[in-house]
Amino acid sequence: MLPQALRDVIDALGMLPGVGARTAERYAYYLFKSSPKVAESIAEALDSLHTNVKSCPVTFALIDADEEVSPLYTDPERDRTTILVVEEPLDIYAIEATHGFKGVYHVLGGAISPIDGITPDQLHIKELAKRVVDDEVKEVIIATNPSVEGESTALLLEKVLHEAKPELKLTRLARGLPLGVDLSYADQITLSAALENRTKL
Question: Over the range 161-196, which residues count as b (16 or more CB within 10 Å of their CB) and which as e?
Fold first, then answer.
């Protein structure tokens, strides 16, 4: 029977998405065999995660705790009249890696999913509608994931944003993205092509 401390680590690692029992066991055993400094470094990083990272009050992107607003929003070289809307904060980094977008971002915080109990009022849709008016936005690029939930969310966004500002230009990323693939897993070439060939709604 495994020592309790090792079992505790295996159970903890098993809570991570995509980590099965065998993978959790390998990770735990690796940490045990490695220098204690490796485990200490990971523990320190995890300990500071919730105190040193927060959500931007404007874009809802992840920022350092000592920052007021996302640098991607305050940067004078970014075009605030163009907003790219994504589901999750990590999607931003996938887009930024293409170096092909110079506007700003808005993170919804998920996608509509009745099965998972995620309703429209739990997403940052009202805040987006307010930004569109306050920042005199000209175009909103909807970059929700190409899934049933992402498509449902995109349709709602189209309705809400057109009501908030009828003359607003709404576009979607081109269908170069494979169906069912999250933005954070898409390669840079595919993302660049999808961004370049976005379509008008």
Answer: beebbeebebbbbeebbeeeebbbebeeebbbebbe
